[in-house]
């Protein structure tokens, strides 16, 4: 090589055309062996620095690939999750993480979250360039994977600074090859991130549909319960009216029409109980169809087993009359939340036992709508008033 000089990490040669490819390779190996060793030391130093998150917890498993100064983004790790999202820029300010306000003291803990690779975190960010707010979804990545991408990027940048600027026979240069490698690596990261985003969007759509269906089922069951117990209340009122009618008219002309009306009401209540049981089965089937692997965990906003106050209020609004037994509804509602409805009492101490066996509606209607006369709660209502010894006790037989 006739006259050559080294300046800013690159060769300038006046007779590059006279050099063979082999001589250039030998020159590169000899000249830049020391630079390669320095690069190795630099990479080792980078690997021993703090984690990409400011003030991290001990040994975090995940990383977003961000350098933070308080709440302001000061650097984005090439190949990391934040880099792959293409939504964050340097000097952006993080305002909240997953709906929780971020502060310089808690931002690191909020960003790590569940610390599970593949989980998602939502950031509310204010851009310094336009002062606009935006919501950014980023998928957490394994911290070791982020460090490896960072090391690859640092190595390629060091090689780009130190390789000689010459052209091969096909016209390519080492710098062009390095740039092409960086482009391929980044495209792979972008593609992986986009595929994960599509999967998340599909799961969110499915979760929203299941939540809406469950809400509709809970509301329908609540309305059915209101109608069910409303019929119960009206049946008790009709029973009182029939009792009064028999008291007035039985001596002159016994009439069995009232008993037929009560039997018709019993049949109607049995049909209502059967339809309510079918709605419950549909609700449980829809609830069991949720896939726990998608981490959806939907919680319907309608009526549910923990909303005692809202549940009771809805049912009581559908009722009319002071004869409705609210304590009976409380117990019936509680048993419904456990998967059953009140059936026959086990003994006199437990008048409203819980039961969840199918096919109990007829007994429920017969025993619950018209409890036996020996029940201490309803004995007074069904006890016939004193009458002449020669008058048959039809009302007592009807109540049984």
Automatic annotation (TrEMBL):
Specify where the region named Disordered lies, as residue ranges.
Answer: 1-23, 377-400
Composition skew (Low complexity), residue ranges: 8-23
SMART domains in the cross-refs: PDZ (SM00228)
Q: By its UniProt entry, which Pfam families does this protein fall under?
A: PDZ
The PDZ domain extends over 52-112
Q: What is this protein called?
A: PDZ domain-containing protein
